[in-house]
Amino acid sequence: MTNDLPFQHKTPASAPGSPTIAAPIPQSLSQAIRLPTLDRMFLLSLCMASVGFFVVSYMISLDDPEYFSRQAIAALPVSAVDPINTGAIVDVPTAMPAPQIVRVKPPFPADFQIVMVFDSEAILATSEELWRVKVGSVVPGLGEILTIEERGTGGMVKAKQATLETAAR
């Protein structure tokens, strides 16, 4: 058997005198990968479809940035969508219940201390509660707050029923 191929490979099972298997060395990559025409057409159409899809998606998102978000939300079942938008205020028909403060005894003016006075506000305390007050606030045991004065070492809070002052230190 004559062999005009430049590369010859003997199989491991070949013995002297057995035929050799010859395979040509490809000259270029295009010669190594020869696809049938139908396969090349399929790959080309797949590439074109992919590029076309991404170009169309990009153009839609440039024209209307919220398009795909709206489509995704519209496809969700109604029960999966939160009816309250973030940051939105919903009209509540009645006021929300607030906890009731139950005091053992009503506070008296002597029960209060000034914790701090700043700008035109003050923080007042009893043994059980804290109040942040400003002029016009109504505090049980003191009544309406009339004036708040800031002084060097503390301050003064004048109410309808009493006047509180910080002790000099």
Describe this structure in words.
It is a single chain. The chain is of the alpha+beta class. Among the domains are: 34-82; 109-165, no CATH class. 24% of the residues lie in helices and 22% in strands. The chain contains three helices and nine strands. The chain has helices at residues 29-32, 37-63, 67-75, and strands at residues 8-9, 21-22, 113-118, 121-125, 130-134, 138-139, 143-150, 155-159, 163-165. The protein has a four-stranded antiparallel sheet with strand order 6-7-8-9, with no helix packed on it. Strands 3-4-5 form a three-stranded antiparallel sheet, with no helix packed on it. β6 and β7 form a beta hairpin. The longest helix has 27 residues, at 37-63. The protein starts with 7 loop residues before the first strand and ends with a strand.
SSE blueprint and pairings:
Layout: E1 8-9, E2 21-22, H1 29-32, H2 37-63, H3 67-75, E3 113-118, E4 121-125, E5 130-134, E6 138-139, E7 143-150, E8 155-159, E9 163-165
Antiparallel strand pairs: 1-2, 3-4, 4-5, 6-7, 7-8, 8-9
